[in-house]
Amino acid sequence: MLIFHLGPLATSLFSLLAILALVFSFVMLASHWLKNHVYAFAAESWTIAAISASIGYYGHYPELYIIAALTALFRGTFLPYLVLRLVKRLDIRREFTPLLKPSSSMILGAALVIFSYEVSRQLGVALHLTDNIAVLALTCMFSLKLIGFLMMILRSEAISHILGLLVIENGIFLGSQILVPGMPALLELVIIFDLLTIVMAFGMLVRFLQTHAGTTSSRGLQKLVG
Amino acid sequence: MVNFAALIAALWIIPAVAIILMLALRRPHLAEYLNLLTSIAVFGLTLTILVAVPDKALVTGAQYILLTPLGAWVLFCVGLVYLLASIYAIGYMRLLPEEKPRLHKYYALQAGFALTMLIAPLMNNPGIFWIAIDFTTIVSAFLVGFEKEAECIEAAWKYLIVVSAGLALALLGIILFYWGGTFVLGPTYALTWANLREVAPKVPETLLFLSFLLTLVGFGTKVGLAPMHTWLPDAHSEGPAPVSAMLSGALLNIALLGIYRFLSIVDSGGYSLMGHTALLVLGVLSLFVAGMFIVRQDGAKRMLAYSSLEHMGVLAIGFGFGGPIAFAGAMYHMVNHSMNKSLMFFGAGNMMRAYDTKYMSKMRQVLRYYPVTGALWLLGAVAITGAPPFGLFLSELTILRGGILSPNPWAVWVMAILLILIFTAFMNHFRRMIWGPEPEPDEVPTLKLSLWNSLPMWLALIPVLVLGLWWPSGLWGFFQQAFMVQP
Fold first, then answer.
1. ipTM summary value
2. Do residues A133 and A15 make contact, with C-beta atoms less than 8 angstroms apart?
3. Is A225 helix (H, G, I), strand (E, B) or coil?
């Protein structure tokens, strides 16, 4: 259920922004340069911040402005900065061992979006949803989730895994902003904080991986099997 | 009337203060005793809470804290395992002289890990519960990688990445649960277990199932249910032995508590059979995977890690059967498994240090070189496979009894056969370690184990034996009461 009635302008704005976030995830999927990943991720986060702010405006949820500012600050600026610093420190510029070419991974990504749309549409029918925006939000949420998993599967660099996880988190955040804008703001704040901690933990572990295991690629991590 | 808010505050403040002291003073010996004292205090507090827990759900702390009988039981398991692991850690970490300069960090992390586990079961908000579980993962990943060898770091990395990805699914599930509630309660309401249960009957079936399956897979990753178990054998086998005990004996229960709470939402929605069957199927699959890997395992702690997978499977089956008998069996199994698995990891840690290997094929004539530790370890192995007269026999039998009356009696047979297989495989491994060939002359163990290494094994074995011979009737009443209260 969407809790407030949306005018046509607001609907198109939300749709545009949600689709934009989805497009950025395709940018990540198509490029093997780690820097581009990080920039695309930052752009995606800023888009999501814009969604939060516009929902705050149209739905009269003033606390969403704070969430939007924090999203832009942490997800859009600080996290990309941390990951970029890690990329520089590890001196890895691109993903060398992708399983698929960019074009094939984009086709797979497109298939996942279609699958997500189908799931969301079915859900929309089952719930008698009248707003298309809810179906779109569900589609984006599931698509980002699946694309994030796809990135983690197709790539073996530790940094790519972190970024895949961040895309998944972004997807959930995007969906939750549109579907449940009234969810207690405290929870969203704590989730942002939690994400920050986990990225720092990842950063430390990646550096340990490099010094103690001699590799940051999951292909090199094969000591533990069976 | 006990002041639960004060008890819970003490439960969180004592470890927090201890962590600050350990990190500030940087004294290894002080840190180990400080950690021990903390764990004794925590154990006392969890026991007090368990004894005094009211027979209905208690919400306090500005609606953020929820205390239920099942929650108190899980909390008690945390306190128990933390105490055993803290006693053992003193003996075990002293066997690693190269870690001495960093020992205060180890104990601070261990206390921090315990603290996150003392927070999670008490959370009344599923979202905050999720975050607490996430924090247990972060802290314990550093404990797994504490020894900084290539394998440890690899295990820690896999643990963090797999579990975070899994938990992300659970977060999606929680958001969909909340969304389902907005159809009934309006856009903004408090996200609590009770509210989600209340709206469940009015939430459309598809959405309720989707949300539940997402949380089941998400927290199932944390419990280590197959096929999301891939991180578990790595993480549980590569960390220091006391950490393995805490990961296995305490943390897995908490994630399972989460699953059971989400299951209760589906139950109140009126779709109990579907939810229980989904959990049951994952449990049976875990038992099967664990059995297959235990048969051909050579790493001592890896075998125990797969045994954790087995026991989580048994618990999932117990909760999946539903009904008061299987539920009581599962709760009884929880505490028995916590103690017994700690005992097994302590024994494995001792033997790994003594023989300087992780492989069971190199640990030979264990009983001759280490009659006490070896005997305790062997008895623990008999107990952990569910043989009488130990507690796990009673609890597994109760789960099986409960299962016969459940809507899924087929699982009883599968479970029984797989348990027999695992018993055989375990005993085969121990037979080789006890009656196998003599060790090579340069591999004869010379290490002297101290009382710190064997005392916690006694402390774990004796209760498991007592609980196997005598199931206190008060405990049975408590389980029935816990079954009646919403978790």
1. 0.94
2. yes
3. coil
Cβ-based neighbours of B32, under 8 Å, separated by 6 or more: B89, B90, B93, B103, B107
> Which residue in chain A is spatially nearest to B135 when comparing CA positions?
A194
pTM: predicted TM-score of the whole model, two decimal places:
0.95
Radius of gyration of chain B (CA): 21
Rounded to a whole number, what is the distance in Å from the CA of A36 to chain B's nearest CA?
A: 22
Average pLDDT over every residue of A192-214 = 87
pLDDT for A30 equals 86
Residue B376 scores a pLDDT above 60? yes
Mean pLDDT of chain B: 94
Q: Which residues of B touch A127 (CB under 8 A)?
A: 183, 204, 206-207
Distance CA B22, CA B107 (A): 8
Residue B292 in contact with partner chain A when CB distance is under 8 A = no
The Cα B249–Cα B88 span in angstroms is: 14
Which residue has 């208690």 as its token pair? B58
Helix axes A185-208, A63-70, angle to 10 degrees: 10
For chain A positions 132-171, those within 8 Å of chain B (CB to CB) are: 141, 145, 149, 152, 158, 161, 164-165, 168-169
Token look-up 């927070």 returns B119
Backbone phi, psi, residue B59, to 5°:
-110, 130
SS3 A181: coil
Whether A224 sits inside 8 A of B233 (CB atoms) is yes
